[in-house]
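Changelog-adjacent note: as of this version, every example in the card shows the full chain rather than a window. The one below runs 184 residues end to end.
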Amino acid sequence: MAHTLDAVLEGCRRGRPSAQRALYDQLAYRLMGVCLRYCPSRAEAEDALQLTFVKIFTRLDQFRGQGPFEAWARRIAVTTSLNLWHQHQLRGPQVEPDEAAELHHPDGTPFDQLSADDLVALINTLPPGYRAVLNLYAIEGYTHAEIGELLGISEGTSKSQLSRARRLLEDKILAQANSSPYHD
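Full-length structure tokens:
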């Protein structure tokens, strides 16, 4: 696979559309998942994905092979999505997404009852700053210092927002469980 990726990357460096398409097909789904975590809407996530690929194709000479290519591409997707998120913040408040669907599993703790889609929907109801810190820390694996640099906040603010995001998410999970038709 690495040999195939190397060949695709070399084709991209030479500007070959078939290689660019192959790289897009290989990474688009996973990078879209990254963009969706940070952008306030699917349309903006799609814009972030396209900008991510433009940056990947125009900056391939900056990839030195020090680590997996996908990790390098994910970092571009995160940065691009965060830049669009900052632009969105400057334009005004986002429209809140629809409330998460009710739980349909009577067994286990409220968290155990959540499907992945339910959890993503609840995370998407968090305030944008909390959601960004939670995603960067818990999903992307950034440190609080790195998050602070990416978002233009202090390391302490990152820690505080993560703590508040977790607390708010826990409250939302419990509230959703209590509103479930299966709740006693």
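Structural remarks: The CA atoms of residues 97 and 125 lie 6 Å apart.
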